[in-house]
Structure to design on (368 residues):
């Protein structure tokens, strides 16, 4: 099997070499904006298909009046060219095109390598899951994903790529992703005061699940796991209530204000008993300046849980309306949906939701 795969790759290289100069096969864009909207066509009036993030690299498949069409997994979408840098002038590894039939793949590989200059330094990876490829272009396979903060030894470089040493191999990282002028890394949630608000409590049971579970019990379960996780990461955590007590909405918001919280997270579950198939997670903000916090958390929860994305929206809820601090309210799923209710009772799924919230907070604090 492996032999056949190598043969196919060599055949592809030979074909590319035969028909085009190498530069023509490298056509990529780097996203320069976080949470950049993906559209189904070249304009803001087209459907929003999701978002891409700063530092992501995609192959460009089209371009039209200020919009770039990019290849995603299994589909293509459009982004405003204002927020991407184009890599079509990527020419540092180009083989001079002197019209010779370059069907010899060895020639291509060799000339790529000789273009590298040798350097001795280390770089610090500023983003989590930074892609390391086995060659200096996005056409090459991803061979590793590196964690934020990791330091790698640079053993060579081309115009746009660093060649770096990994534990037992070598790879390439796109220079713009590790730009040394990047601002200092922050510690994320470490040292931050986070108020967690498990919705409802005491006599107020909240919504009722398909199988009889109370919203108040689930929100407390999630809050408890979230608190443990954040404490482990060095945050100071304050809960608005304990397991049994009822606390007014007003005093929940006041607590956040008095404690001068860096973030206030209100946890809730939804229910529409008449429509047991309804599913999804949504996050709400009240003050517009906290919309990014809602966006980060929502995106990360969807990524972790795989539940339907109901998006981020303005929400007129008292706990966030009376809150002066960065605050959001999350509806973490429909307990009226029997499948979701069963999932929510498992620690595995609860931990996915919590990871999403934590990752969203980490992203939020890393830009503050
Ligand atoms: Zn609720």
């Amino acid at each position: 099997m492996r032999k056949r795969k190598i043969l196919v790759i060599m055949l592809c290289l030979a074909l590319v070499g035969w028909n085009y100069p190498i530069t023509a096969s490298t056509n990529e864009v780097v996203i320069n904006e976080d949470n950049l909207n993906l559209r189904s066509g070249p304009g803001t009036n087209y459907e929003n298909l999701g978002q891409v993030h700063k530092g992501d690299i995609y192959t460009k498949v089209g371009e039209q009046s200020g919009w770039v069409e990019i290849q995603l997994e299994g589909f293509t979408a459009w982004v405003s060219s204002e927020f991407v840098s184009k890599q079509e002038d990527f020419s540092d590894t180009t083989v001079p095109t002197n019209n010779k039939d370059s069907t010899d793949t060895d020639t291509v590989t060799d000339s790529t390598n000789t273009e590298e200059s040798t350097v001795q330094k280390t770089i610090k990876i500023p983003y989590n899951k930074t892609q390391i490829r086995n060659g200096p272009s996005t056409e090459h396979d991803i061979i590793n994903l590196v964690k934020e903060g990791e330091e790698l030894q640079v053993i060579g470089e081309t115009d746009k790529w660093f060649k770096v040493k990994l534990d037992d191999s070598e790879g390439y990282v796109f220079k713009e992703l590790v730009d040394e002028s990047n601002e200092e890394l922050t510690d994320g949630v470490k040292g931050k005061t986070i108020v967690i608000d498990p919705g409802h409590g005491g006599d107020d049971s909240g919504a009722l699940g398909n199988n009889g579970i109370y919203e108040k019990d689930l929100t407390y379960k999630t809050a408890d796991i979230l608190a443990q996780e954040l404490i482990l990461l060095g945050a100071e955590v304050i809960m608005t209530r304990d397991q049994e007590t009822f606390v007014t909405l007003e005093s929940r918001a006041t607590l956040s204000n008095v404690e001068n919280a860096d973030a206030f997270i209100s946890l809730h579950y939804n229910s529409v008993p008449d429509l047991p198939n309804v599913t999804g997670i949504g996050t709400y903000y009240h003050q517009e300046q906290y919309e990014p916090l809602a966006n980060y958390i929502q995106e990360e929860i969807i990524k972790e849980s795989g539940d339907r994305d109901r998006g981020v929206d303005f929400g007129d809820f008292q706990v966030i309306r009376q809150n002066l601090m960065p605050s959001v309210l999350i509806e973490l799923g429909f307990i009226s949906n029997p499948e979701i209710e069963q999932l929510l009772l498992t620690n595995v799924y609860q931990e996915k939701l919590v990871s999403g919230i934590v990752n969203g907070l980490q992203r939020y604090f890393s830009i503050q």
